[in-house]
Each structure stands twice: as structure tokens, then as C-alpha cells.
Amino acid sequence: MEKFTGRVWVFGDNVDTDQIIPAERLVASNLDHLNDFIFEKVRPGFAQEVRKGDILIAGRNFGCGSSREHAPLSLIEAGFSCIIAESFARIFYRNSMNIGLLLVECSVEDPREGCEATVDPDNGRVVVDGREYTFPEYPPFITELVNSGGLMNMVKEGRI
After folding, report:
1. How would residue 30 be classed by pLDDT, with cut points 50, 70 and 90?
2. Which pTM value belongs to this model?
3. Pairing of strands 82-85, 55-58
4. Is the distance from CB of 138 to CB of 109 less than 8 angstroms?
5. How far apart are CA 64 and CA 145, in angstroms?
6. pLDDT classification of 124: cutoffs 50, 70, 90
7. Which residue has the higher pLDDT, 99 or 80?
8. Are the CB atoms for 134 and 128 separated by under 8 Å?
9. N or C: which terminal CB in the chain sees fewer CB atoms within 10 Å?
């Protein structure tokens, strides 16, 4: 898997899918630009600040709430290369991996927003603001899934 380096954005525990992308934004005319609305209720103007390659770090239970795929999709479209959290809601985890968004379960102590983080999935290593953390290796299927950009790409390529 590719190594990611990016600017850090910090969120707390129990970030739910309605905070990531409000349900009222999920109308047909918005589906091509969901990234314009990420976190708009909890951090107005946030979508305009995110750059391609940024990394989001959160606490426990990131992605709780509804099972909509729109939340991880909007994070990809916004430019996030990966999400690091102490834990993820299971359905969010599965939806994210299925569409190719890398999730890293790792507890990062007092991350500082705006600092730099590097994620090395092949070696199970995260470096945030100079401090190193580790996480378990991914099974080969998950590595292939993320490298392919998600389940649908694997199906189109005839690998499933």
C-alpha cells in the first residue's frame, strides 16, 4: 500500500455520519459534490479548508450512526488520504474499505491540528508530529481492496 503524508485535522469521540455529511444534503442534485458539505454543522467552512492528502485523526467510535456510504465517500471526495481513529463503527469501517478509503485503528495521544502525519500501512506505522505509533497489519484482501480503490473497482477489473 502507498505511504501517506498529510496535514492533520482533529476530531473527538463518537463522530457520527450526520456530522460528517448531514442527511438533508443527500439529495440527487448534490451527490456529485458531497465534499462541499462535510462537517458543515460542526465546523462551518471546513470543506473549503481541506486539501488533497490531508489526514483526519479522531477518537473512539468514528462513523457511528446511519449506515450510509455517503459519509466515507464525502471524505474521499474532500481529499482525505486516510482516517486514523482509536476505533470505528463497524458498518462505517466496512463501507469505507469497500470504497477504498483507508482506515487506521490507532490511538494517537493529543494530536495537534495542522501538524504533519505519515501513515505507512505496509509496516503498520503512524508518525504524528514526530511521535511514532503502531497498528496491526491488514489482511491481504483488505490491502488489495484499498489499493484497487474499492470493491467495485475489483469487480470491474475481474479480480472478484
Report:
1. low
2. 0.92
3. parallel
4. no
5. 22
6. very high
7. 80
8. no
9. C
